[in-house]
Amino acid sequence: MLAYAIGQGGAAGRYLLIHVVESASAHLLGKESDDYETRKDQERLDRYSAILKQKGMTSHTALGFRHRSREIARLVKQQGADMLVIGSHGHTGLKDLIYGETVNAVRHELKIPVLVVSL
Predict the structure, then answer these.
(1) Of 10, 9, 11, 20, the residue nearest 63 (C-alpha)
(2) CA distance from start to end of the chain
């Protein structure tokens, strides 16, 4: 997914790496959550951000909590992003009902280009 983002923004782009934590404590405590999953998710984002910085790019991270689509849209708006590159697992039909349609919900909340990358 990063390769697609870099393909759009180039070396001069500013990259915000977002992940929404969905652990039980994250649902209960939000940003006050400090469980194993939250720490590992932040570490993973930090590793990717460090790689981008080593390549001379500007990169920041943000963790969201509870509701995927609402949090992604909120963070994108808050940071004033010009474009969103988002991954899609390609669920269809019944799986969309079970897992939700994150991409569509986010896309409808934003007024910027959204590039959907199949993972």
Answers:
(1) 20
(2) 8
> For the residues of 48-110, what is the DSSP string, one character each?
HHHHHHHTT-EEEEEEEES-HHHHHHHHHHHHT-S-EEEEE----THHHHHH--HHHHHHHH-
Question: How many Å apart are CA 15 and CA 37, to the nearest integer?
Answer: 23
pLDDT for 97 beyond 60: no
Long-range pairs for 51-54 at CB < 8 Å and ≥24 separation? Answer: 52/2, 52/15
Beta-bridge partner residues of 87: 117
Of 29-33, 56-60, 68-72, 74-78, the one with minimum mean pLDDT is 29-33
pLDDT tens for 10-36 read 999 999 999 999 888 888 888 888 889
